[in-house]
Amino acid sequence: MKLLDGLRKDLFLYLLILPGVLYFLIFKYVPMWGIVISFQDYSPYMGFWKSPWVGFEHFTNLFKNPDFPILFRNTMMISLMNIVFYFPMPIILALMLNELRTERYKRVLQSIVYLPHFLSWVIISGISFLLLSQSTGIINMMLIKLGFQPFDFLTNPNVFWQMLTVQSIWKETGWGTIIFLAAMAGVDPQLYEAARMDGASRVRQIWHVTLPGIRHVMVTLLILRLGSIMDVGFEQVFLMMNSAVSNVADVFETYVYRNGIQQGQFSYSTAVGLFKSVIGLIMVVGANKLAKRYGEEGLY
Known about the structure:
The protein is mostly helical and about 300 residues long. About 70% of the residues lie in helices and about 0% in strands.
């Protein structure tokens, strides 16, 4: 009875969250049943129930595969570069936007920096080719006019990871400021007044008031980002990948595409995906425990 009374009392709130709950149930939890094929020699004609069980054979083959160290290195390095260089950028940009006192100018700038998020990776890759092509790229043409030699951006394995990181920063930094700006809006204004009365400069107010006020948000987003450390974005890597940089560009997503989609190795590619998920779970649990040890709230 108490449950029904609670449902009647907050009926519209439950209806509001219903689409989100259905989304996760249908597209996240129900498909989890498919992980069983990572322990089978799955055949679409035989189905889940009749396909023979092979245990951990696919995982053994993955770890013994000579490509595994390269895939793991590339995936981890791209993710770590995104965490080190991309993750702080929305925070820095949000701090800069938050310091603007003209609301109209602030809204215009916010709209401008949000725009790249709505561009597909196909468009971003096309822009990159127009800018960075060695023969017809705008940047190399400018270098030639300035008397320098053209630089090989697109087929140089030494700068491939950096190029992906710069693309991610340009595309997603503005969109990432939304959460941080919302968190900054919740900081008590009286704290700023007290800091000004104590003679704190704008920089000191940011350091001692704003950043501590949004620290829990930064920690939470960092933990969530660590949970997807094995996901580097298939579209971006696939579109920028070529034979000259394949040794540093091949990641688990492109590997699954070749084996799972092109070659039809459904069980093997599912095992790769399950391995990635386990690594992400370990990172989330470990980072959450570490955050709690240092006095943060964590995720749970």
